[in-house]
Amino acid sequence: MSMNYPQYRPRRLRRSESLRRMVRETRLSVDSLVYPLFVAAGSRLRRPIPSLPGQYHWSPDTVVEEARRAYELGIPAVLLFGLPERKDPMGESAADPNGPVQRAVANIKEACPDLVVITDVCLCEYTDHGHCGLVEDGKIVNDATLDVLARVALSHAEAGADIVAPSDMMDGRVGAIREALDEEGWEDVAIMSYAAKYASAFYGPFREAAGSAPQFGDRRSYQMDPPNVREALREIELDINEGADIVMVKPALAYLDVIYRVRQAFDHPVAAYNVSGEYVMVKTAAAQGLLDERRAVLELLTGIRRAGADIIITYHAPDIAQWLREG
């Protein structure tokens, strides 16, 4: 069959929006979206986050309305991050049953039982040193951290979380969390593992929003080295073998090749996190009139889907949901 011009003219199928829709290979759907929310201790709180334009710190009572808004827009899930009242070297408040995340989970599930609630499981927001694991003699220790992470995940499950999402990058944490959940009768709670989380420069706005910047050193001894992709495949295989139900690549835009490789290698659902720095780049350029925000966001998110992500975590989620409704 000839594929040469003039017999074959690719432009024939680009002449109208209806034709383009008919032959579109990758479709961005609201069903793929997860909306991250920051929950802080207190009440009646709706505080703008300077580092993340359009995002807010919510209290466990007010976050319910934002979660309901997301649900009414068709967004199937939210991802909760916590800002506690107090911090300590062990991150003890992360497992507090009365902590902001635990209270928010219970409130959201009561108001919107069909909305999927995912909780971030990490210690960086709760430790006074800002690291994702416990610290001994200036080093981030792995195995001692696992029990703490398991207790945090268990407290989230008891509050009503549908999915727990360990983001710490400690070795063995998925297995420790799965074992703890199963032993306590929470075998139906799923695990979405931050399986390939890179030591990225694109986390800056989030760290300011969550108050989670490390107070010494950096996170390169546990988060992945950006040049590596084969290592990401090993990390993901380990997490799947330990019981991860969904695996994540973070960040998204600088790691589209990693998302693609993961999609080709594994059958598990693949999530990608369109992180804070990626979000702020678009918001800043749009605010200066340098690009069309709607077109840019939809193009970027379609690219993440095209690379192979089934699920996209993005601060743009409510806007995307509204734009997709409008067509």
Notes on the protein architecture:
- This protein is 38% helix and 18% strand.
- It is of the alpha/beta class.
- It has a single domain, classed as TIM Barrel.
- It has an eight-stranded parallel barrel, surrounded by nine helices. Strands 6-7 form a two-stranded antiparallel ribbon.
- A hairpin with a 7-residue loop joins β2 (46-48) and β3 (56-58).
- α3 (100-111) packs parallel to α4 (143-159) and α4 crosses α5 (173-183).
- The longest helix is centred in the middle third of the chain and has 17 residues, at 143-159.
List low-confidence stretches.
none
Binned, the helix content reads: 25-40%
Mean pLDDT: 95
Give the termini separation.
Answer: 36 Å
Q: Would you tell me which CATH topology applies?
A: TIM Barrel
β-sheet strand percentage = 15-25%
Walk across the major sheet and give the strand order: 1-4-5-8-9-10-11-12
The overall number of domains is: 1
* Radius of gyration from the alpha-carbon trace, in angstroms: 20 Å
Q: Quick one: biggest sheet?
A: 8 strands, parallel, barrel
Output the helix-strand order. Answer: HEEEHEHEEEHEHEHHEHEHHEH
Keywords:
single chain, 327 residues, 11 helices, two-stranded antiparallel ribbon, eight-stranded parallel barrel, 18% strand, TIM Barrel, 12 strands, alpha/beta
Summarize the structure.
The protein has 327 residues and is of the alpha/beta class. It has helices at 17-22, 63-72, 100-111, 143-159, 173-183, 204-210, 230-242, 256-265, 276-287, 293-307, 317-326; strands spanning 33-40, 46-48, 56-58, 77-83, 116-121, 134-136, 139-141, 163-166, 190-197, 246-250, 270-274, 311-314.
